[in-house]
Amino acid sequence: MKRSLLIGGVVGAVFMVLAFWGVPLEQFADAMSTMDWRYLIPIAALFFLQEGLRALRQLIMLRPLAPEMTYRSSLSIFFLSFFCIHLFPARLGEFVRPWLLLKREDIPLGSGLGVVVAERAVDLVATLAMLWAVLVFADMPPALTVGDTEISLVEAGRALGLATVPAALVGCFSLAFFHGPMLRLMRRIIEACARAVPRLERPGEVLLSFAGAFASGFATFRQPGRLAAVIVLTATTWGSTAFIYLFMAAAFGIGDYIAYAEAAGVMVITMLGGLLPAPPGMAGVQEAFGRGALALFGVKGPGLDGPALAYAVTVHWYQMVLQTGAAAYFFWADGESLRELASGAKEAEASVEG
């Protein structure tokens, strides 16, 4: 825990410095003062829409395990758990949702964790698909010069998409529908790799555990109708979320650079930043990835660095404020305490690891 806190703090500090690098504070302040605050209203509506859709998807995925579960309960569990994911260190918040599902809906920890893993895997596949679409369709520099080498971003994006997205889709659906043979095959491959390189044994076991949890969680929505609903809700969720990034660009006067495809690109790139270890709230990481994504789409240089930084800071922390406000309501309405959730998450983590 202490090591994770230290690593996250260092990573956050480094990325925060990178985010503010080269931007005079007066330019940042000017950009914030000239922001069109009226756009915060539709952004808030879009935020709660996509959170509501994700809670509905969670309910559909969990319905076979908890037939009596209500949408109100799913919404509460969703907001409380994601608040804790952003607040607790060392990914401890990931165990809040399985613990709440056990406490409120009597869903076993293993099954609850499996559904959470399956949900994250679905979102990972969706992220890869969106990344491929952005690299192909968004307006980006045709080439990037690294040293003496010129790299075609468009061609690299197409190659990346053609290689990774179909492979990810095949892997996920193979685990979902042929989990027994797939898990046995993965174990043989991991054991062979570990014999050749002993250091790969632990990462291999983690990967195998993830695959097993995903297969277990996916079993709850393997029926065609439920699977179709999950796919439609996933596409609708992330398709609507991209408008948050589009409206924020208009609020800071950089709408000429950020159309819908570019807004989706900023969203995907900042989502990928969430894979890194970071301090609570992803402080620093989201700002740096957001500003870097905007620079990729041409929002950089004198007169634009200030609005780009202000955009990255606002799009991150405004959503955090909205999420915190919703979580605060459910803490009050449901009589939950942060200390109890932290204790429950530790118990769930220890139980799963044991």
**Range of strand content:** under 5%
Class by SSE composition = mainly alpha
- The parts where pLDDT drops under 50 for at least 5 residues are none
Name the helix and strand elements from N-terminus to C-terminus, one letter apiece.
HHHHHHEEHHHHHHHH
The N- and C-terminal alpha carbons lie at a distance of 17 Å
Q: Tell me the radius of gyration.
A: 21 Å
Shape: globular
Number of domains: 1
Q: Give the averaged pLDDT, no decimals.
A: 85
How many helices does DSSP assign?
14
Q: Percentage of helical residues?
A: over 70%
Please count the beta strands (DSSP E, at least 2 residues each).
2
Biggest sheet layout: 2 strands, antiparallel
Read across the widest sheet, the strand sequence of neighbours is: 1-2
Please sum up the structure shown.
Helices cover 76% and strands 2% of the residues. With 354 residues, it is mainly alpha-helical.
Folded structure, characterized:
Helices cover about 75% and strands about 0% of the residues. The longest helix is centred in the last third of the chain and has 30 residues, at about 305-335. It has a two-stranded antiparallel ribbon. The protein is mostly helical. The chain contains 14 helices and two strands; from the N terminus they run ααααααββαααααααα. It has one domain (about 1-10, about 30-354). Helix 7 packs across helix 9 (about 200-220) and helix 11 (about 260-275) packs antiparallel against helix 12. About 35% of the residues are buried. It starts with a helix and ends with a helix.
